[in-house]
Design goal:
elongated; alpha+beta; four-stranded antiparallel β-sheet; Umud Fragment, subunit A
Length: 198
């Protein structure tokens, strides 16, 4: 009769290997599950943010003092993009953000002249079709003159509210409506300026 002796070390070693393999498999499954959950959350959030930014609204920062006393440098505003695309074009008095190819930064200005109107700025006074324009918003007078010139179709004439410190249509001419990013709608920062933009 042959005697066999079992090595007591073999079984525990095998069990340890199997436990490690099982543990590695569990970790891999957990990692894949976590990645899947992150992807299910992050990817739709990124897509929604892109859609909102491209088509509905975007945040922007006021750069410089050209819109004082109504908007201030470093003030942050939400620009809504839907109104001019779906409902109506820019209206006189609207504060708009424009993105001109020849400018390095987007500009924020007020719509003053509309398509087909003849505009002239002389001695700090805006004239539309020969009549002085009543501007109910606060402004700082100054800056150069302009015109008279008739605004082309699908263009608007824009000015900063701080006329003496504004790079506006007096310098680069009327703006194509297609270069308007949207209507400055709501100021959200700093908190003391929070509210609708007028």
């Amino acid at each position: 009769m042959e005697e066999t002796t079992e090595n007591p070390q073999v079984e525990p070693e095998t069990e340890r290997r199997e436990a490690r393999a099982s543990s590695g498999s569990r970790a891999l499954r957990w990692l894949l599950q976590a990645l899947r959950e992150v992807a299910e959350t992050v990817v739709p959030a990124v897509i929604i943010a892109l859609v909102i930014n491209l088509f509905l609204a975007q945040a922007t920062q006021v750069l410089g003092q050209s819109m004082e006393p109504n908007l201030h440098s470093a003030q942050r505003v939400v620009v809504e993009k839907v109104t001019y695309r779906l409902f109506h074009g820019p209206r006189r008095g609207d504060i708009v953000v424009i993105d001109l190819p020849e400018q390095s930064d987007m500009l924020i200005k007020r719509v003053i002249g509309l398509p087909g109107e003849t505009i002239e700025v002389r001695s700090g006074q805006v004239h539309i079709d020969g009549e002085p324009l009543e501007e109910p918003w606060m402004l700082k007078p100054g800056g150069g003159g302009y015109g008279p010139e008739t605004i082309s179709p699908l263009h608007v004439f824009v000015l900063g509210d701080n006329r003496g410190a504004s790079n506006d249509s007096r310098n680069f001419g009327p703006v194509a409506i297609e270069d308007i990013v949207g209507h400055a709608w709501f100021s959200y920062w700093p908190p003391e300026y929070m509210g609708f933009v007028e």
